[in-house]
Specification:
alpha/beta; Alpha-Beta Plaits; 8-stranded mixed β-barrel; disordered N terminus
Length: about 750
């Protein structure tokens, strides 16, 4: 036994073998200023009391006695305390988890002053103890007990009522009338009807049936329901009732209690929302969605197909970076509202109160998931996905800014794609990334091949991280030819990767991975350095090559120290700055046009040449184009295809050449593959050409032979002769396939 002293307050002896319950009681009573002693079993409590003079300071003012204890239970301990000197009038509050009448009767028979059902209300208990200690005689104790009950009821918002079934009359306490919001009904035998008129419409029939059942049943029961108070606000009540029988035929009286649990219900709802709902959008979060998904899978149990849609906003980070996180939050809210509005009742199984869709959830960040529990066919899921794409297509207005956003959607169908919630989420995620790689703003279905693709991507990414250190990267070069003289004016450096395990990996596969992981920055630096060093090496042995062109990725271009890096590489290699041409895509420059202008001027100050690659495929503004310190426009290969027969392509190419001439810019046509294309470009005064008609990209060791071959054919045929087509090589090799190179040869 231990004792803790306080200067004020009654002395309480707690007898309980449950150390957790005892610890919580001690903490609550000490905080209320009471002195506490403890015993972990009945025998220890009796030994303590037997050795103490009831008139001394060591004698407790009240005993809190647990009923269920080993060896000597609470009932036996209570009887033996009453037999001790000074134990007759000692207040004993028995604590029990048994709320049946038999346990209560046994407690009083054993001599308990009062009883309390666990868990005890720690806020009310100190008040109750003080009242019990103050009561001396049995009559005074009863008086205090009644007042204590009234105080407890007021604090706990509890009222009571009694219904005489034979007389059809109900007596309601003042507190109960206040709780139901109809104090004016005191003495009115029709209060039940008035109560039912205030019950929320959704609960009214259920409450009426609950009261009606007690005319023929004797079981105690409880019920929770909503009620509309006089101010029109909804509150939540809990009703308790037990019957008293005068004969076996039917109950004679009902004794009930009503408690206002609005505050408790609101707290529970708040905790529920914090645990299971996204605070920003109000949608279910990942935890709740996964629970609902698992329940749905169990209910359907392979009988009916369903689908899960995994959604991710495209380029959401750009909104955050440009307009700030507050605008990003507004966008997420607006997107969720549009998605909810676009869903139809037959898309879904159920909804939460307040029109919150259980099927649609925000998983985190800019990721959402939608469950379609019952679909007839995969095309039904595709129709819903298409509707979502359409709903998100119109621009969003965010704090004065108009924002366009698209979404990539992955669709996985169950049970064929999986029967576990976590598997379906993973499959949907993989399908969503497949949609992003397909160009975004679309949807793709999951299939098993995506698993294999994911594993290949993981192996590729892991190997790519070590490619530079393991000397697995190399450069190929494709010639840039002057259309007037036929001379080679320069070379474009194109990256190749050969891995011992993966073999030769296509740039189409590894460049996107390098960009997504940020590896493109060190790889791009390696490419520029190797290209500069190689050109300088050729120049030192007398090979006359005017410039080398290097593609620059968006990630490199956005690095603040990129111009310093270029200047450092030129200095280290000894290459003259005007021998390096940096190729930047049109869309890259227009992504942040003002910042691009500043960066281009910094690069131009280094002395390098600048070219816009794939020109015509982006959305350049002529106003910005004239501000860009550009030396060259490279016409995208897509406009060269069928140029001799396609009027639109022909007109675009003619316009680009004319505009470049007006702005004193050089022009290079990419992807030249036929003599007809060459003739058209020559007729329209295009300055430079590049393509498989003349040469594919070749490794370093083949460049000297290529230069000699081009020079020999130039001298044999004459400047500008179409005999350059003798070099044409087009076969099934990806390096010689124009469509494969269109994306793959970009660094």
């Amino acid at each position: 036994m231990t004792a803790r002293t306080h200067e004020n307050g009654p002395r309480v002896l707690i007898v309980d073998d449950d150390i957790t319950s005892r610890y919580l009681l001690v903490a609550a009573l000490e905080q209320a200023g009471l002195e506490v002693m403890e015993a972990d079993q009945g025998a220890e409590a009796l030994a303590l009391l037997e050795g103490v003079d009831p008139s001394s300071q060591g004698w407790p003012d009240i005993v809190l006695l647990d009923v269920l204890m080993p060896v000597l239970d609470g009932f036996a301990t209570c009887r033996r305390i009453r037999a001790l000197p000074g134990g007759v009038h000692l207040p004993i509050l028995m604590m029990t988890g048994l709320d049946d009448e038999e346990s209560i009767e046994r407690a009083y028979e054993a001599g308990a002053t009062d009883f309390e059902v666990k868990p005890l209300n720690a806020r009310i208990l100190p008040h109750r103890i003080r009242y019990m200690v103050r009561s001396g005689a049995a009559a005074e104790a009863l008086y205090h007990s009644q007042h204590r009950l009234a105080a407890a009821q007021r604090m706990a918002r509890i009222g009571h009522w009694e219904w005489n079934l034979e007389r059809r009359a109900i007596q309601w306490s003042e507190q109960s009338l206040e709780i139901i919001g109809d104090r004016a009904a005191a003495g009115d035998p029709g209060v039940l009807d008035r109560l039912l008129s205030r019950v929320h419409a959704r609960d009214r029939r259920r409450v009426a049936l609950w009261f009606e059942q007690f005319t023929y049943t004797q079981e105690s029961a409880e019920l929770s329901h909503g009620i509309i108070d006089s101010d029109g606000r909804e509150r939540h009540l809990r009703q308790f009732v037990e019957t008293r029988r005068e004969d076996a035929a039917r109950p004679a009286r009902l004794y009930g209690a009503v408690q206002d649990i609005t505050t408790i219900r609101e707290a529970e709802d708040h905790i529920q929302r914090l645990a299971f709902f996204d605070s920003l959008t109000g949608l279910p979060n990942r935890t709740l969605f996964l629970q609902f998904l698992e329940q749905t899978l169990k209910l359907l149990h392979h009988h009916r197909p369903g689908a899960l849609l995994f959604l991710d906003l495209d380029n959401f980070k750009q909104v955050n970076d440009t307009l700030g996180h507050q605008a990003g939050d507004l966008l997420l809210q607006a997107v969720s509202e549009r998605m909810v509005a676009s869903l139809r009742a037959n898309d879904l199984v159920s909804r939460y109160e307040g029109e919150e869709h259980q099927n649609l959830a925000r998983l985190g960040g800019d990721e959402f998931a939608l469950l379609l529990p019952e679909i007839g066919h995969g095309r039904d899921a595709a129709r819903v996905a298409a509707r979502l794409l359409e709903a998100l297509a119109p621009p969003f207005s965010l704090a004065g800014h108009e924002v366009m956003i698209t979404v990539s959607i992955g669709i996985t169908v169950f049970p064929q794609d999986g029967d576990q919630g976590s598997d379906l989420l993973r499959n949907g995620d993989m399908a969503m990334y497949h949609a992003k790689r397909a160009g975004k703003n679309t949807f793709k279905f999951f299939d098993s091949s995506l698993n294999e693709a994911a594993l290949r991507r993981l192996r590729t990414e892991t190997a790519l991280r070590h490619a530079i250190d393991n000397n697995e990267l190399c450069l190929y070069f494709q010639p840039l030819l002057d259309l007037g003289s036929g001379e080679m004016r320069g070379l474009e450096a194109l990256l190749r990767w050969i891995n011992p395990e993966l073999g030769e990996v296509s740039p189409v596969n590894f460049i996107p991975i390098a960009e997504e992981t940020g590896l493109i920055v060190p790889i791009g630096e390696w490419v520029m350095r190797d290209a500069c060093e190689q050109l300088r090496a050729w120049q030192l042995v007398g090979t006359l090559i005017a410039r080398v062109a290097v593609n620059v990725s968006a990630y490199q271009f956005k690095q603040p120290d990129f111009p310093d890096q270029v200047e450092r590489i030129l200095a280290d290699s000894g290459l003259a700055p005007n021998c390096l041409e940096l190729e930047l895509t049109e869309s890259l420059l227009m992504d942040h046009a003002e910042a691009s202008v500043q960066m281009l001027h910094r690069l131009k100050a280094v002395g390098v040449q600048l070219a816009i690659d794939d020109f015509g495929t982006g959305y350049s503004s002529l106003n910005y184009l004239k501000r860009f310190p550009i030396d060259r426009l490279k016409i995208d290969r897509s406009f060269i295809v069928n140029i001799e027969r396609d009027r639109d392509n022909a007109a675009i190419v003619q316009a680009i050449i004319a505009m470049a001439d007006t702005m004193s810019l050089h022009v290079t046509a990419e992807g030249v593959e036929t003599s007809e294309q060459l003739d058209f470009l020559r007729a329209n005064c295009c300055g430079e050409v590049q393509g498989f008609l003349f040469s594919k990209a070749v490794p370093v060791e083949e460049i000297p032979d290529l230069i000699r071959d081009l020079a020999a054919r130039q001298g044999h045929r004459g400047a500008g002769a179409t005999g350059l087509t003798d070099r044409r090589q087009v076969d099934s090799d990806p390096d010689q396939n124009p469509s494969a190179n269109a994306q793959g040869e970009r660094v």
